[in-house]
Design a protein that fits this description.
The protein is an alpha/beta fold. It has eleven helices and 16 strands. Pfam families: M20_dimer, Peptidase_M20.
Length: 378
């Protein structure tokens, strides 16, 4: 099985090039569906059952098993969408410099598509029954919160013993055992317009009210406890000589655990409700959309299995935590032992110039995934 993956490295790179050169922005349904069609064909070529979950707005999702009626215990999750606009692949197509592959989405996470496919091909080629123990979800909207795929992931999670999420691996053989939860909120403040030179006293400044709220929001940060609140976008007013009748702020929140999520939501609601500038009104929308992936005793045991498998292959697997969210949260919150970042290793995801995947790790992490599946299936 290891030899099969090593011998097919160039074939893997060729397919990676095809995927990277196919635009698949989250809002580009046609592009995401092209990636889905490429994957569907490849998995069907090795005899696996592929169900297409058709969507009207976002790209379609894929659900893949060895056959329609098997009952796998391992869930593998990957996403087909990227953050890059349509036309990016033509602007800067797939390229290789040394041992690194570059291009839009190469690391986040088209190299992982190749990894999952060739892990399955290797299991099939070697006659391993472990291929029957795998349930794969390729979703189309992870970069925008997995709104249409969350229910599919939760349904696929039923009766699973393990979840392996193939977001990109971290340098120095890192895999992810802990991720922050992500929340997005918006405050809309209403005031009253007035001419700022003629009769400013009859106006009510929404910008002034929002300024008080922004300062209080930023004071909620507790970096030592892993809690971050960032007012990343503000907008307001109608003209420089008008008392602002409206203003808005968009807020990003990251939390380490469920208690932080509950407490910070309460604090943001309290800030929205408090009125500093008399006569203003504030409307709050949004929520903690993606729960945290908390490190548990069960996920630690799964990590030890991945680590032991890696040791047998000559890899020194380490665990890391990260502030970014992923679909791993949806299986972890259900109590399923979950490991993330088990995909090929790279850096600088979402970068317009520097994002890369280490092509040696494309082979190594494919072997690691296949061998881990075998060990979890014993």
């Amino acid at each position: 099985m290891i030899e099969y993956i090593q011998d097919n490295k160039q074939e893997m790179i060729d397919f990676l090039e095809t995927l990277v050169n196919t635009d698949s922005n989250s809002y580009d349904k046609k592009g995401v569906d092209q990636v889905g069609a490429l994957l569907k064909d490849k998995f069907e070529e090795i005899g696996m059952f592929v169900k297409v979950h058709r969507q009207t707005k976002e790209g379609n999702h894929l659900e893949i098993k060895a056959d329609r009626d098997c009952a796998p215990k391992i869930l593998i999750i990957a996403h087909m969408d990227t953050v890059f606009p349509k036309g990016e692949a033509e602007k800067r197509p797939f390229s290789i410099i040394g041992d690194k592959a570059y291009g839009p989405g190469v690391n986040d996470e088209k190299a992982s598509h190749v990894q999952v496919l060739y892990a399955m091909k290797a299991l099939k080629e070697s006659g391993s029954p472990a291929i029957n123990n795998v349930h794969i979800i390729f979703n189309s909207d992870e970069e925008i919160g997995s709104v249409s795929s969350k229910a599919l992931i939760e349904e696929a999670s039923a009766n699973k013993d393990y979840s392996l999420v193939v977001e990109c691996g971290r340098p120095n053989d890192g895999v992810v055992t802990e991720r922050k939860g992500v929340g997005r909120f918006k405050m809309n403040v209403k005031g009253k317009s007035a001419h700022s030179g003629v009769e400013p006293e009859i106006g009510i400044s929404a910008i002034e009210e929002l300024a008080h709220k922004v300062i209080r929001l930023q004071q909620l940060n507790d970096y030592d406890q892993g809690l971050t609140v960032n007012v990343g976008l503000i907008n307001g007013g109608t003209s420089v000589n008008t008392v602002a009748p409206k203003a808005e702020a968009q807020i990003d929140v990251r939390v380490k655990n469920k208690d932080q999520a509950m407490n910070i939501t309460k604090s943001i609601n309290e800030i929205a409700a408090d009125e500093t500038v008399a006569g203003t009104q504030t409307e709050l929308s949004g929520n903690m959309g993606r729960p945290p992936m908390e490190r548990t005793a069960e996920s630690e045991e799964l990590f030890k299995i991945v680590q032991a498998t890696g040791k047998e292959l000559g890899f020194d697997i380490k665990e890391v935590s990260t502030g970014g969210g992923s679909d791993a949260a949806y299986t972890a919150i259900k109590g399923i032992p979950t490991i993330d970042g088990i995909g090929p290793i790279g850096e600088f995801s979402h970068s317009e110039t520097d994002e890369y995947t280490d092509l040696n790790s494309l082979v190594d992490r494919t072997v690691l995934l296949a061998k881990t599946i075998e060990r979890l299936s014993d």
